[in-house]
Amino acid sequence: MAARSTLAAPASHLVEVKHSRFLAQALAVDSPEAAMAALPGLCDPAATHNCWAWRVGAHYRSSDDGEPAGTAGRPILAAIDGQACDQTLVVVTRWFGGIKLGAGGLVRAYGGAAAECLRRGARRPLIAYAEFAAQAPFADLGTIHAVLGAFEAQKLHEDYDAAGVVLHIRLPADRVDDLKTRLRDATRDRIRFSTA
Q1: Same domain, residue pair 17 and 96
Q2: 121 and 134 fall within a common domain
Q3: Alpha-carbon span 144 to 159, nearest angstrom
Q4: How far is it between the farthest Cα atoms of the chain?
Q5: Contact at 8 Å (CB) between 124 and 5?
Q6: Helices then strands, each counted (H, E), the chain
Q7: In terms of domains, do 33 and 75 share one?
Q8: pLDDT grade, residue 2 (50/70/90)?
Q9: Do the Cβ atoms of 47 and 91 come closer than 8 Å?
Q10: What pLDDT, on the 0 to 100 scale, is given for residue 76?
Q11: Distance between CA 32 and CA 37 in Å, rounded?
Q12: Is the CB of residue 88 less than 8 Å from the CB of residue 55?
């Protein structure tokens, strides 16, 4: 599966299809609530249709806004997924030009405008993070800090008890196993891990 990304900045793309204008606008959103809150600012009440879709992880929604069912919102969502985007909202506004496009033409116009908008937009990767706790004797604290620094892991906080120190750590999920192996080696297996 392709690495997921979102937009680094808002993007737009304007295309004309048989005298109808389609303006695709896309932006990054971090929650379903943020997507729904951003919608009114991207829609033009004077336009014929403001069709949209968004995806945030497993959550998604779309709207055909009066176009025939399945000809606008779903193709926009398919463009988001096809471009391996997440945390992304796309609105495609249509100003009718007097020539009917038919269902296939609408699907191509809405989906194509959304896909091209996302292709042209600057991207940033979405990185999945993991958190865990590491418990070790006080004597290993300096060694642990050195290893965490080498992995650019974030120490969220540390707690102390009679047995030593418990560090709460955050880093990209794909680096967790390597970090744990390095910490075990550096402390001669005196470190223990648990979920944060």
Answers
A1: yes
A2: no
A3: 14
A4: 78
A5: yes
A6: 5, 11
A7: yes
A8: low
A9: no
A10: 97
A11: 9
A12: yes
Percent of the chain at pLDDT > 90 equals 82
Are 92 and 64 in contact by the 8 Å Cβ rule? The answer is no
CATH code: domain of residue 36: 3.30.230.30
Using DSSP bridges, classify how beta strands 164-172 and 154-161 pair: parallel, antiparallel or unpaired.
antiparallel
* 35 or 125: which leads in pLDDT: 35
Apex CA 165: angle with CA 159 and CA 169, to 5°? 70
Query: pTM of the predicted model, to two decimals?
Result: 0.71
Quick one: how far is CA 128 from the chain centroid?
Answer: 10
Domain residues for 152? 129-195
Distance (Å, whole) CA 161 – CA 119: 52
Rounded distance between C-alpha atoms, residue 18 and residue 103, angstroms: 14
What is the per-residue pLDDT for 168? 94
Q: Which two tokens stand for residue 42?
A: 């991207």
Are the CB atoms for 67 and 49 separated by under 8 Å? yes
* 168 alpha carbon, distance to own chain's centre: 25
Interval 163-192: pLDDT, tens: 899 999 998 888 899 999 999 999 999 999
